[in-house]
Amino acid sequence: MNILRYPERNQWDDITARPVLDVSQLNATVAEVLAAVKAGGDKAVLSYEEKFDHVCLDSLAVSEEEFAEAENKIPSELADAIRLAHSNIATFHKAQKTRHEKIETAPGVVCWQKDVAIERVGLYIPGGTAPLFSTVLMLATPAKIAGCSEIVLCTPPGRDGKINPAILVAAKVAGVSKIFKAGGVQAVGAMAYGTESVPKVYKIFGPGNQYVMAAKQQVSLHDVAIDMPAGPSEVCVVADANSNPEFVAADLLSQAEHGVDSQVLLITTSEDMLRQVQAEVDRQLELLPRKEIARRSLENSKMVLVHDAAEAMALSNAYAPEHLILATDNYDELAEMVINAGSVFLGHYACESAGDYASGTNHTLPTHGYALAYNGVNLDSYYRKITFQTLSEQGIRSIGRAVEIMAEHEMLDAHKNAMTVRLNSLKQQDK
After folding, report:
1. Are 348 and 337 in contact (CB under 8 A)?
2. Contact, 306 vs 273, CB < 8 A?
3. Which of 182, 186, 344, 405 measures 20 to 30 Å from 211, CA to CA?
């Protein structure tokens, strides 16, 4: 990892910069695949599955027999862990339900808001080297709680044409309606446009590689909503002289192993802690099966020594990390200073992997600095908030003239007239 000691503020932009990839050719490839899926439907998706996932499929849909088979394939302790995680995630997201009151904004003018679930949502779950069955729980559980009537999931199959059994079990536990064997750009296109097998959805959720992210952004321009823009996974750990260097190093490596384009950042007020963490990272790295991935990620990563906690938090806020771990004794005090972060982990025992799996918070979070303006997936992500209002005769009298004046000054005479005819009607009644 790159080490910086007491950097000046004018260096912070470089410190907080993420790895930059040339996506010009990537975007052209993505656009080509999306166009083919839009035109060709299932046939195009099956063709790209053979080309990109190296599997020849007869159909895209997962059968009931495959669901049943999956339950017998995973260890019982994993099934129990999935159910525990689902229960905690459900508990946390159910608590996010809000009650909307009717408000009388002026005499005779009553307004209110109603949460209405998005009818059909699409979930993308990466496969590959790390099939993310935990993400199934994170995305499908709040969708089910919100009341989405159809939850469609796409995930790439293995070369045997099968979906990872843990993904299927998690999907059944969380209430997914339909699962399809499709990965990458072709999966995003299938959900965005609809095919003979895959229903067109109204919003797409889920992480993925740079091709998936580019596909989500392209389809969001015209065809479907998406959860958020996103990039590679990342963590920022704030540590001081009392932090546990073994814990801190483990937290850094837990994110570094995600992918070669991931990034981790340590901000510490202690030179001694910096050195201890550096030694622990080197030691633990050699023990990891995915150490080559983590090693390349660490090349994008930094350890920064700062003067005090206030400077540490200012730098963290400038970075706006996906995950923020405050690995200090005074985490409550530092938590009050958090402005920009996706999800925050407080204290020595709140490892980021707890949130990734089973604490109950959602792990689908803004990355690449998008935490400056976006939040992670939550129950509201699956709702549209529809406003209602009703006006009585008293309501027309309360705000009618103000509406006329404002419409007149915006030179929208028809708008003014819609209110004027009602005011005139009331005047006739008053005579």
Report:
1. no
2. no
3. 344
322 is catalytic: yes
| Tally of CA atoms within 13 A in the half-sphere of 333 that contains its CB | 6
Distance (Å) of CA 112 to CA 115, 139, 267, 429? 10, 28, 45, 29
Mean local confidence (pLDDT), 202-229: 94
Q: Which residues pair with 123 in a beta bridge?
A: 153, 205
Strand partners, 268: 239, 305
Q: What's the pLDDT tens digit per position in 161-206?
A: 999 999 999 999 999 999 999 999 999 999 999 999 999 999 999 9
What confidence score (pLDDT) does residue 170 get? 97
Catalytic residue among 86, 323, 363, 368: 323
The answer to whether 323 is a known catalytic residue is yes
Q: Which residue has the higher pLDDT, 208 or 151?
A: 151
Q: Where are the beta strands (DSSP E) in 162-250?
A: 178-181, 203-205, 225-226, 234-239
Which of 234, 322, 352, 363 is an active site residue? 322
Q: What is the pLDDT of residue 128?
A: 65
Burial of residue 409 (CB within 10 Å: 0-12, 13-18, 19+) is: exposed
Q: Quick one: which H or E segment has residue 138?
A: helix 133-146
Q: Report the distance separating Cα 48 and Cα 32, nearest Å.
A: 12
For residue 261, what pLDDT band results from cuts at 50, 70 and 90?
A: confident
CA distances from 150 to 177, 198, 355, 400 (A): 6, 12, 26, 43
